[in-house]
Amino acid sequence: MINMSAEISSRTQNQSRLAFGLALAHLAEIDPLITAISADSVDLMGLADFIERFPERFVDVGIAEQNAMGIASGLATTGMRPFVCGYAPFISARSMEQLRNDVAYANQRVVIGAAASGVSLGVSGGTHHALEDLALMRAFPNITAIVPADARQSWAAVFQTQNIDGPVYIRLGGRIPEDPVSNTEAGFQIGKAECLHKGNDITIIACGCLVSPAINAAQHLSKKGIGARVLNMHTIKPLDRESVLTAASETKGIVTAEEHRITGGLGSAVAELLSVENPTPMRIIGMPDEFAVVGPTPKVREGYGLTSANIVNCCKEILNY
Amino acid sequence: MSANASDRKTLLTMLEKESITIRRNIWRALRSAGSGHVGGSTSAADLLAALYFYHLNIRPKEPNWKNRDRFVLSKGHANAALAAVLAQAGFFSEELLDDFYGYKSLMGMHPDIKLAGVEMSTGGLGHGLSIGVGMALGQRMQNINANTVVMLGDGELQEGSNWEAAMAASQLKLRNLSAIIDYNKIQQSGNVNEIMNLEPLLGKWSSFGWAVRELNGHNMVEIVEALDAIPYASDKPSLMLAHTIKGKGVSFTEGTHLWHQNAIDEDSYQKAMSELGQPS
User: Of A10, A247, B98, B210, which cross-links B239 as Cys (Cβ 3.0–4.6 Å)?
Assistant: First the structure.
């Protein structure tokens, strides 16, 4: 893997969506089969480098997500390695049948880069929020679903898709910078949770933009004498069962945190596993079963309790602290 | 008769025989299934015979050959016809047709990419043309001198996704992509033009940037000529609008939506086989 140089680091503006596009241009240099399919998402996904260097391997289908997904499937059958780039709310929902039939059912090596996920387009309202995409991906067999926590991990994820023989969904953030959660790409291995804070009292399992608040929560708890383990569960599917089961047996409970509806997301996945294998006290932090309100993204997140403070409270609740 | 004319006649006779065998095999498969899409399978039989026994550059014993032409049956419910022609072409044994709809069979109602010769799992309508655009593009990007053909149903053109794909094929100047519309004018619940009219259909494709041609999809001379003429323009995808008859070949299935999908009993099977006759 190419190391993320200081130059690249500065160019991603700490945004996973831009790291995706930059990494893709580097990957295309190594692999002549890499192709980028954009659904009018060039700026969103930082594809300028790719287009400049590999114009013959770039296609913009316009505002036509269904077509983007179908074309990607067809390309993959010929041996090309298509990366479909689009807005999470549209590339997951508008093209859902193409994704299910042409990509997942036919089990093609298509990578989907879904930017502006969650409530990152907060003021745009419910039409532009993507809060059910992980539930969809989890429900379709064959798909690997990844939520990089920061730009560096997005970069690493792009490269690591080379090792996956099937479709991959990479959920990316919007135009708000994401706090870097680690200094190297080494900790990021698809399918393997990354422990970012050690502790044996309670476990916080988070993904995406909730990883940074989870670390803050653990640091806060540690000052109170509570050891909180933080697992960055960047791969939602297949779930790292071993890390979850170990955490359940070594700590007193689990708090999950995600920018996704509670229905069918990370917390759901963890609960499905633990309820059968090792019933464990849990709290699930995520979006409720309603369409989120309109508002600036930080306010919307805060309003629904996607905060370090709420994670701390949930941990304390489980520990009767 | 010149040698060429004689060759042509031999070719046409062979293709017509294969057509009859495809129709017989459709009935054979669907009898084993107990029911199925007779109408849209038999309307496509002549076109499929010409594709698989004349037009497509394929190697049935080497189904994943990199330089092959690719065919996508977008109207996946006509899988009995595809399975029949793939078996006849030698991708697998014709005996597999007797396991149609069987438990864990690769011969379901719709094509399964896991079966040799099937290029894509289809069945959800309005998917095939985008997939074909991707295949033709992939061939071009890798400098593979091969073509992609997509067969579309008429009813499925009511799905808007087709027109996204039609725009893209034209924008990308995919001269190695062609689409054939099996225009039998009847969909599940009735006549296409009464449910959601497609006309003027040829004009629609033309205005979307395709080079178009109209033909009788049961006249082998016209089919072969239309296939020979592909690509119809040097920088455009080609569209064959093939007028066909739903349920073609058997009197009681022709021209009615009741045989779009229907149960098949022994009596109707025997009557159908008797009307189709043996290829001579």
Answer: B210
